[in-house]
Amino acid sequence: MEEIYTWMAHIQNNSELVTQHYLGKTVENRTIYYLQISQPSDKNKKIIWMDCGIHAREWIAPAFCQWFVKEILQNYETDPKIRKFLQNLDLYILPVLNIDGYIYSWDTARLWRKNRSPHMNGTCYGTDLNRNFNSSWGTVGVSYNCSSEIFCGSGPESEPETRAVVQLIESKKNDILCFLTIHSYGQYILTPYGSTNTPPSNNEELMHVAQTAAAALMEKYGTIYEVGSTSLILYSNSGSSRDWAHMIGIPFSYTFELRDKGTYGFVLPDDQIQPTCEETMLAVTTIIDYVDQKYFPGGAMILTSGSLGLSLCLTAVLTLIVP
Amino acid sequence: MFALNPNSRQASRAAWVALHYSNYHGASPSGLRALRHVMKVSAKMIADVGVKYYLQFATEDYISGQETGNCFATVLYQKKSKPEVNIKCARTQDQKQIQEEDRRVFQYLRHQTKPITANKIPDSHGNIEHALLPVWALAVAGSSHIMLDKSKENVGYFLAQIRTAKQWIRKDGAVEFEYTILLHKTPTQEMDLCYMNVLWSLHQVLTAKYICASESHQLDDGSGQEFGSAAETLHKKGGNFLQGLSASHTRSMGKLCAQPEAAITFPSKPRYSKRE
Asked: How far apart are CA B108 and CA B134, in angstroms?
């Protein structure tokens, strides 16, 4: 984790696009930062959110968030797709949400999942942060027993890590178009909801975009991802961040379950890290690209004669109005 | 009979149950399969018995990830006992080659003069020492028996990690390993700790006996926990089963973690290779 803190500081100091921001504190009082990738502009931009490492043992997730940032910074000048969406969208990346749990999984118990909040006078530890959000909290796919791996906490948003995310997202929710949360394992792109079988109002579009993303992912190494609603293809769960984000009005909300399908599970070998990141990158940029096209149609890169004419016309009008 | 979405969790879980069955009864550590994707699935309620799934699915090699052919299977989840499975699979790989590999692995394990002992397969970073791949594969085959027994329509398992493995050199030519393993259970996300004894005989018959800690969370919250204390707990809980083991086996259970890993060399180039 120290390396990730250092990397975040380093990347802020060495790129004019990246700023590091305070998100909140963990149970054990560590600071949670997120990175904002943002091209200087006076335009009103929208936001893409992506968090990794809400579950401690899913080590491939923080690796992907870092890979994603690196790739964007390396390629934004040359890759027209990235260049285009960065004109309209800011990327908010949270490399590790459950920092206490992540450290615990490195130092003590590799397969630890939850955060490290003490319960019952310190006789049992940890709340499943992805059962702790205020989305049908405590109704299905959870446990009220603090020794369970899916303990949903003492109440909705009982955990400081949850509250840190909620506070930021709530304050920017009108600008956030897309909420991605990265997990492992299973090879799924999951849509809302986990807490009910009733599909969200924009289900058709959510599914279409996810299927396009899965197809883009498969092109790289042939890895098969399944796409569908969480309750249908994975299992029912309540209090997840994905459900919560969609319920507060963020239209594109997805959970990624990265490699593999169970052979290595959480202990994914080193030689699969890079291929996993590469293929996932294609899926994530496909989603961002779609969101960009939808909310910023036409785009500044494509200068059609019509838009050129319009802008010339506007310039002329403005010149006339403003002496 | 009603058709189901092949993407549904019930479909993939039932397909895995069928694969647990074939991975155990196949007794072939070189021919283990994993689920690639379900193509067709339907189900039928059978009064007073349970639910029966009819499946068609594609598989891949558990270790290399290479395509291995399609399977047809039925899985009957019974109210009162473990799932009943029928499965038939096409093989895209050369059956003779797999048998040859099995034979080679068997001879390799059987001819150890110093018993193999190991901890954490794979390790925290997913590494598996080359010489330990057969030990891992044998555990996958054996643990498939446990996972088959414990699977339900809404509960599934994967082998997460071998915590300890220890070989017993036998005079009758069979291969015997004693394992403690962690099974990842969904949707509860628990890690169930099981003690497992796998016997692989000359005629390629494989049997696994096991006991699992029923209150897993009392044990699993250190995956840093040492074998000794886990074995002690299992010992207390599983008195009946352990009585069936020889005295030397039982005595040694608590000591395993202290033993250093044996130096192991693989006699010939093994088939196993990690997936891309």
From this structure: 9
- Chain A's closest residue to B12, CA to CA, is A233
Model confidence, pTM: 0.86
CATH number, residue A164: 3.40.630.10
A25-37 pLDDT per residue, tens: 999 999 999 999 9
Q: CA Rg, chain B, in Å?
A: 19
At the second CATH level, the architecture of B2-89 is: Roll (3.10)
Residues of A in contact with B127 (CB under 8 A): 269-270
Contact of B255 with B231, CB cutoff 8 Å: no
Domain that holds residue A234: 1-296
Domains in chain A: how many in total?
A: 1
Chain B residues whose beta carbon lies within 8 Å of the beta carbon of residue A268? 126
Q: Please give the CATH topology (third level) of the domain spanning B95-272.
A: Nuclear Transport Factor 2; Chain: A, (3.10.450)
Task: Check CB contact of B112 with chain A, cutoff 8 Å.
Answer: no
Answer yes or no: A204 catalytic. no
Amino acid in the structure at residue A92: Y
Per-residue buried b or exposed e for B52-87, using 16+ beta carbons within 10 Å of the residue's own CB: bbbbebbbbbbbbbeebeebebbbbbeeeebbebeb
Asked whether the domain spanning B95-272 has the same topology as the one spanning B2-89, the reply is yes
The ipTM (two decimal places) reads 0.89
8 Å CB contact between B122 and A269: yes
